[in-house]
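Homework help board

Subject: predicted structure for assignment chain

Our instructor gave us this sequence and asked us to write out the predicted structure in token form, then describe one feature. I got the tokens but I'm not sure how to describe them. Can anyone check?
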Amino acid sequence: MGTGQLATIPPPAVLGPEPGLPVAHLEPRWYAAYTCANHEKRVAEQLRERSVEYFLPLYECVRRWKDRRVNLQTPLFPGYIFVRVALRDRLRVLQTPGVVLLVSFAGHPAPLPQEDILAIRNCLSYGLPVEPHPYLRAGRRVQVKCGPLQGLEGMIVRRKNRSRFVLSFELLQRSVAIEMNAMDLQPAN
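My token output:
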């Protein structure tokens, strides 16, 4: 079962539009912040202290050492944490210790589709078995026809006689796999 850390913080008082800023810079949107290796949880704590809304999706995995086994809460997207900010406030994120950069294209931070964040939240909130998966670009496209993920489109892969529904996130070039019953899936239109 996976979980996620989510901090919802009321937005700061709006003082009105700043002259010369595009509307896109004023509207809070979700962005992927790239972090130093293994610093995701520390960055989440720093963002909470700075009153920045963030989402750190975690999943449970078992690690084995010579003398024991431990259940750990590990980031679903290693090296990334999602933040919801207006671009004019991006320095609050970028000046956070452990944050390297916001994922960008052509020098401009690239917002994540709201649907991607909702899909990840739904997977985790319903306790579905979710784990990282190698990024898939092509494959047999399917759509979930019932259950909490109804309507989502992804790809199906088989592993050890089980069906896995794979959601790929183009912006991050990452995928997650969710164990599902093949009866809950139908070919995508």
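Reply (TA_rk): Your tokens look well-formed. For the description, you could write something like this. The chain has three helices and 14 strands. That's the kind of observation they're looking for.
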